User: What shape does this take?
Amino acid sequence: MQQKIPIENLYYLLCYAWGVSDQLDRVKVDGEKCHSLENLLSMVLIHVCDRLLRRGLVREYRFEEQEVEGVRDKLNLAETLKSGKHLNGRTICQVDELTQDVVINRVIFSTLKRLMRIEGIDEDIRGNLRKTLARFPHVREIRVTGELLERLLGNHFGSHLGHLPGHHHHGIYSLALNVCRLIWDSTLPSKDKDGRLEFVDFTEDEFRMNCIFERFLMNFCKQHCREEYPEVHREYIDFQLSPFGMMFKEAGEALPMMETDVTLFNPDTLDKHILDAKFYREALVSKFGGREKVRREHLSQILSYVMNQEDRSKPHTLNACGTLVYPTVDEDFDFSYRYKDGGHRIFVRTVNLGQPWRKIEERVKEIVKEEDEGLAKMGDQAMESLGTEARGGQDSDSKRRRELLLLRREEGVASAT
Assistant: This one.
């Protein structure tokens, strides 16, 4: 993948990967103005903060020890007597106050401050950052760590939104925190200037981009492909190997487990499709300037998924298909293969991230639906084979195997076979 992914498409990709695609229509970006990643993330966070500040930041009740006139909330008698404040009609109390100076807002505020130190941000965007910071109420700047962000985005996220006036805040805060995490992960101290930061292009990190593309595929299928495949999930597959020998127990425990990126399944039609995301600069490889080929290890991986998920008690697993999905911006290809004479099919497909987003959506849906189209073609081929076998007087067992391809949608009939 030599060319860069267009900024707007990268934003769409990230929103799907983060599970906040519902925010795309609410927080929009201009690809022409955001010509770099740091400018893109800055503008997204500015727009998010504008919405949050207009609607009201999340607030939480917090106990603080204060000196007050009279008595308010919970009296700290020991401290009041010790200080002698009661002689002047004042006391020291633990006051329960509803405040916006809470962790989740501190993270966003501190990230805005960090953006101000990044080199390469356009001056007009830097000016908008200043204006946004000035609009914040009293919120303290804190040291933001990966552990803190994971905690906010993970199991404890909901507890920080307990006093939100509307459920829509959950999505906007989730977008904000994911942007904050990406900013903190992608900034390093500048080598030449004290206090300044430089932004590291995370799209150059194949591992990180593969994770993003993998989560994009999963969440996109959950949102847009439920009609064809109601069940969208990861699948854990055991190797179909049986340990034996003196170290029988140890051999069994040493076997790893395979995990698919996306498994699609329709319980009504019994169609099963495994997707494996592969983000590489070069989808195809060649040796010594020879012909470009699909990576051997990738084909082995998807084929291993398909073969090891087979279960004779579930005939539909005997016809599952697998697809390697490569994102590209400069090349397109569609390769299709059949494994031996069985029902398994392997596809190698590309998604061109350089085209308009609507085209990208259509392409992913096309890849997902290929299982059904392939099945129809196989049915036609099986019908021709059945006619040939009948005319040739071949044995009934061979004919029955061909019929299974046509009857795989009917679990009862297949199970009887």
In short: The two ends are 47 Å apart (CA to CA).
